[in-house]
Amino acid sequence: MAISPVSGNQVYQVASKNERQTPAEKGAEHDVVSARSELKARSNQSIVQAMFDGGNTGNNKAMSILYGEIMSTINAELGEQHAITPEKLADKPDDYWSPENTASRIVDGALGFFETFQKQNPGMPEDKQLEQFLDTITSSIDKGFGEAVNILEGLSVFDGSIKDNATATRELITDKLNTFREERLGSGA
Fold this sequence. Notes:
The protein is mainly alpha-helical. It has two domains: 25-53; 55-186. Helix content is 75%, strand content 0%. It contains seven helices and no strands. It has helices at residues 8-20, 23-52, 56-78, 99-111, 114-120, 126-154, 160-186. Residues 60-180 form the DUF5610 domain.
């Protein structure tokens, strides 16, 4: 379907119509636009509430966003060949998204890159490899966590149990990384 170009006459007609509007007509038109914007915002808010305010389902979706953002930053930093993506995890049971299980998956996924990191840095002492690797993945985790929080705050759902679960997940990640560090350093590294 071809669309004909707008002629100067058509532009003039629209401009002259706008010039002929009274302030009341312009105000009424503005009110209609404002009302449409408000309805759209309410509709979007309803969609967000349906997604996140339904108890466990909302928490699971929020935890999925948290996990996805953190893992995408780790994968971007260290490589995606063995990545576990949110798409691969879509049909998992409810407890799959608990803070404990989510933290375990994030840490296990991140630590899975340690052997590759060691091979890429063969001349570096193992304790230095460990510290540099943990600094790298911790930075990636922090970045991903921040991005996930921004998304959830942008959707106005980062409060209550969603915030509590995200915070608990981040604390568990820190604990697990510290345990890994202690185990590696305690083994004579």
